[in-house]
Queue: 3 jobs
Job 1
Amino acid sequence: MQYEEDELFRNEFSDVKPLKPANQVVLQPAKKDSQRATIRQQLAQSHSVSRIEDVPPVEPDEILSYRIAGLQHGVFSQLKQGKYSVEAELNVRMMKLDEAKREFDRFIKECRAYDIRTALIIHGKGRNSESQQSILKAYIAHWLKQVPELLAYHSAKSRKGGTGAIYALFQKSEKLKIENRLRHGGK
């Protein structure tokens, strides 16, 4: 009986010809946001320290402030006023630039690993530098902008270091977003 079924099958499909291989590739749409984040992260890691000329200098008492487009005004205002509790701190005052970069990278990785939302980075004002420019301060601001998860930063309130320190606000991790939805009855 199996023989008859096989023979019947061959007879039915005897005039069928195999398709020729196509020289086409079906492309899937890329996840642009995660792709961009990966590229930014790789670029940041591949260039350990930019040349001093690459980062615009800042004055010792200059207020640093940055936020991504679309961040709610109220959220940024709370950050500027120091209303968010600082969950982690990094002090890079008096460090050499390459040492500060290593510590910065390590700190950012730890912040992401432990779902830190608000951090304080103490960079100093740079008044003791020969150029009277705040080199570390300028680089911290520059490096923060390269962190894909950064939402905003702003110079700290005077009780936390003033213009010698900076608050950084990071995105919620997916885990924290889910926990927040569950806590507030969302889906």
Job 2
Amino acid sequence: MIRKIISILCIISILICSHANNTNASSATEVIELNRHKVIELALKNFVDVKLAQLKVDATKAQLAYVQSQIDLAGKGINSPAIISLPDTFEEIIASIPNYDELSEEEQRELDYIIGIQMMINQSLNPVLELVGGIQYSTVFTDYMNSVASLKQAGITAEKEESIAGIQLESTLELVKYQATYQYYELLKMQNELEQQQSISRELEIHLKDSNVLYSLGLIEKGELDRLQREYNLQLNLVIDQQKMFDLELRKFSTKLGIDRKKQVKLQPVSSYTSFIPTDEKKIDMSKMIELRLVEEEVIFNKEMAESANGNNPELLKYYQKITETQTETKAIIKLQISQYIEALVLEGNALINQVNGNEVQYEASQQSVKDIQLLFFAGKVTSKEVETVEFQRDRAHIALENSKLEYEIFKEKWLLVTNGVMVNS
């Protein structure tokens, strides 16, 4: 134990000297400390998934606005028929002849005879002209109605796509918050495990130094010393590898969060763990579940399309009606899947609670073991090496407890996610 204290003091001295030598360099490096709140804030701002989902929403809104503008424009493009009509009364024809009153009676009688003939011709032509105009209008009107029907269907599709894009954005925001906090807690677990391996390295280093002394006194064989040296080297390489892996994962995570590579990133440990949360599956609001809402949008879409096709295309109407029936059945299946997911999630939460409680008992027992063996050490009944072994077991129990608490924190994020309508694969 005394050797361990001396070793720790030496390490602290080295760190202090190192810090003093690098004060100027480190002072120029901005440090970003990450906690749960900061991680969520940066993730919502910088995760690519959020940006893509928002762009999709913007695109569907623009599409819907365009289709609606085309519908409004089409409504202004049809006018009443402009039917050509010839003058077919004596008065109308006379009115079109200039200086009729200035003609002599004989000239007027001759002209009246001609007007009578023209009047009969015009009266026979007007029904034909009216029919032709009506046919032309009917063709234009039919084309117009077909165009409006197509635009209305396009509008229904655009409304559905906008609604689905909005729902998917909600889902993406919730998933991004979960993914960010999950990675944060996983990095904390990696950091705990790295610290544990570093502790093992320190223990082996002390043991190796003691063994060198024993070997110089002829108390152990060269083979035993070589074995301890190999064990220490392997452990040292393990620590180096884990440190590289941790640094890599932390850098990747920082990049996703939009943090500049020049900035130093530190993880704030969870200062205080919240108490266990109630997991009552009956309080989950099924109407909020994203999977159900997406299917419901499809049901609404197909009903509206069926209504728009009613009377115009019987086969298309049958198709949409069948699809609607299928999607209604799909909703029932999804509800069952959600119920099964929530039930499994409740079991997972209970298992993690038991794990945390069990690790707390083990850690408390290990703390008591350290107190007991320290008393034996001061009484001269055990060696410092035996004390260090028990202290090491306590440290391992503490890390196991911390990691199990982090596992439960991840579970709480998952439970929060499902209460907001989103399921995630374990």
Job 3
Amino acid sequence: MDDGEPAGNSRLVGSSTGGAGSVALSPVLVIGFGSPFRSDDGVGPRIIEELQVCALPSYVELIDGGTEGLDIVHLVEGRRKVIVIDAASMGQRPGSFVRFTMNDASLLDHRDAVSAHVAALGDGLRLAQALGVLPSDVVIFGLQPVSLDWGRGLSPEVEAAVPDLVVSVLAEIPPDAGSMRLP
């Protein structure tokens, strides 16, 4: 199946541009990881789709991160806040989600992750932190999948969680850009 996008590549969904066609970084980055061809693994990109129709502040950038968790290293540099959404097998009730921060050791030590990009995401966050490019304000939403098998569409349990997850992500976006200005 081909949706016209190379598998695993990040896709910029919304951004603000600076002068002369250069891309100006938005202080707040919301990135959804996953593959819409792997059932519930597509929850990250699905949340990004839902956020596209919301009235978001101009200082927020949305990115469909695909399946390359290590891409986060170059995507977070220069940001003030990063919000990540991904499916993650955490032993929770299917369709439930957990909010993590970089202080949660369980996130970074998730070596037995079901999908390779979840493990790569943890590695990417650690690398960005080691390189000094990771902002101090990072929030990760992990959603417990029912299935990561090949197939399009979310399971009913994960689909039912989408509205609540969107509300939780929106609650993480700062209300004004004053504190979100880049250096």
